[in-house]
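Check out a protein:
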Amino acid sequence: MSLAFLPDIKTESTTASGLPVFYKNKTDTHAKVIDGFTPRDYLTHWLSQWVRDYGIDGFRVDTVKHVELPAWQQLKTEASAALREWKKANPDKALDDKPFWMTGEAWGHGVMQSDYYRHGFDAMINFDYQEQAAKAVDCLAQMDTTWQQMAEKLQDFNVLSYLSSHDTRLFREGGDKAAELLLLAPGAVQIFYGDESSRPFGPTGSDPLQGTRSDMNWQDVSGKSAASVAHWQKISQFRARHPAIGEGKQTTLSLKQGYGFVREHGDDKVLVIWAGQQ
């Protein structure tokens, strides 16, 4: 399937294709003809070779709906085997013994276990979370239902939630509370560069979303945004120390004032209290 008039590699083809002409004439790619290989076979072989050579432990895949599901499963299978080989050959370099992982982006995907999970993906990007969080910038308790539902559903699968995105907008409401809204969320989370330092929206040109990809405001990290960066770091470190934040089951507390919950996962248990507006 073609995307935005870009070249379409026929990954659905079951016919052996040989190498593309530009690879035949560009020997420094080291690409070789492999008997019987289809376009999909070549792509998965080349991508898996990166894993085998460099120990890459996962792929974040863009616009997954434009490639058929069996192709993603083939990539996951081959890349997983390649990572096992690399770790066996490089035990002193391997960071852990975890398997190869894949996270996918499919526009509009939320917290649901779609067919992508049955075809190689370990997590999908959660497009719902940005606007859910926006409704809770004045009161963290407004996230309770969302967090309860996520914590319950994500016992069986995972999603990757975000506040800001190059495809939607920069999340700049809530001040420091943005860190809490993201980093206390169940499941996996991603910090878009500059969320921690309030990176400003940049020039757009012909693309109205180009401003979301503005230059990093490095000068503010140790300058006017230093306190905000420190806040993000503190909560990030808390999350890293406590797997229950992302993986645990949630119990909401009944409080006379403020909002609180407990999350538990295995031997890890955390208590989070929001005292209200100061």
